[in-house]
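Possible race condition, two jobs.
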Amino acid sequence: MYDARTKLAGQVAQEVREHFGDLVFRTVVPRSVRLSEAPSFGEPVLTLDPSARGSISYKLLAAEAEERYGLRRRGADAPAGDLRAHPGPRGPHGRGFGTVSRPPEGLDDAWPRPVPWTAEA
């Protein structure tokens, strides 16, 4: 949430880059009204307003993270069995969110079953 109008934001960004070096992503997410409004609508900014500066910045940040960590993107051209072929969770209005990963092993063992509480009371 970088605000280019303030000197402090530039100074903080410079300090963070000097201290953490290559760990800091190149992409900067600017502060914007649409980013602030999205939670009020119950939607991520990416689906609320895909052309907003914040949406574009988050897409660039996601692409940078995918590149840095070798993640694969979901796509129609993915061969069967490939992670990209997994339909994954759907977002608002049936839109997906991009990167898909396998669930961690032992996830079912980590959460108690049967659930000790019920919604009916």
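Job #2 (started ~2 s after job #1):
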Amino acid sequence: VTPLRILHVDTGRTWRGGQAQVDLLVGGLAARGHGQLVAAPAGPLAERLAARGVAVVRFAPHGDLDWPAGLVLAARARAFAPDVVHLHDARAHALGWFAARATGAACVVSRRVAFGATVRLPHAFKYTRLPIDRFLALSGPVRDELVALGVPAERIELVPDAVDVAAVGRAVVAARADGSAATRRAATGAGAGAFVVGTIAAFTREKGQDVLLAAAGRSAARPHVILHGAGPEEATLRAFATRAPRPVGVAFVSDDEPFVTLAALDVLVVPSRAEGLGSIALVAQAAGVPVIAAAIGGLPEIVHDGRTGLLVPPGDPEALAAALDRVHAEPAAARARAEAARAAVVAYDVATITARTESAYAAARAGRAALPPRLR
């Protein structure tokens, strides 16, 4: 493949799934010989990329209508002369398309979440009127929402999240070998032979940590719980964890070592009320950790009920408690599902997903080249 010059734009100021995916993609594209520039706010993503020698420029707009920031980005883009501008989140989409238009580059937008497609007019305008060449939908439900908004299906590529399978495996083995996983289990009050379950997600209502706490309090398995993350719902969750029925032990973790938490868990739970895909489930599968997930959004695309994990109705603590009890009572079956998941997750390895993204770039460029000159 002929090397491309790619401008990535991401406006996330914290470290969440979207930023982790940009990090993986930039690394995957660098390995394939592409030149890249990343526009992002000062924060974890910019720091990680700069530490690896990736060129990073500051882009921190104050809202979707911060046109001065958009004009500065367009000037940066003209200096870089990209072949592709990849806009990785909603605010990047709102402002970053102008950078592509100013340089004649192909414009690609990633959409990570399923939303109320017909609720807000700005969504319809942004998705159907701005000159976007390709949309990358994280899952089938996200693709369906884009179509419902009026985006032509032929301009949508289904490109799921990636996972660095080998790196996850190494990190989990290391966390178990150096004792950090055992220390994390002990933080919940768990002794030898205890059943430890948990989540790794931002503390927001849609992530459903309260559903897990309610389920753990009802479970006959009496699980200890690790909640790994940070966010606006933390105080609410801490209060929820003290109510009856409550788990026997809860540990709140806010560090940047998710692999230590994965290594400490007997089950990773994804109890989301809404989810574009749920990439943490892929990470758990790569680590060989059993997964229970809500049957919402794109999660059923990566967790196949009874084969690679268990699915439960979203927002249903009783059903989740029953699934926890099932895993606890049938450890051999849980291990078998986890092994099947580890075999299947190679389809989401970073090299494979990077190649799919690269193909989407090629399609976007071909579509732009086919336009009349006045529309390019």
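The two ends are 23 Å apart (CA to CA).
Logs attached separately.
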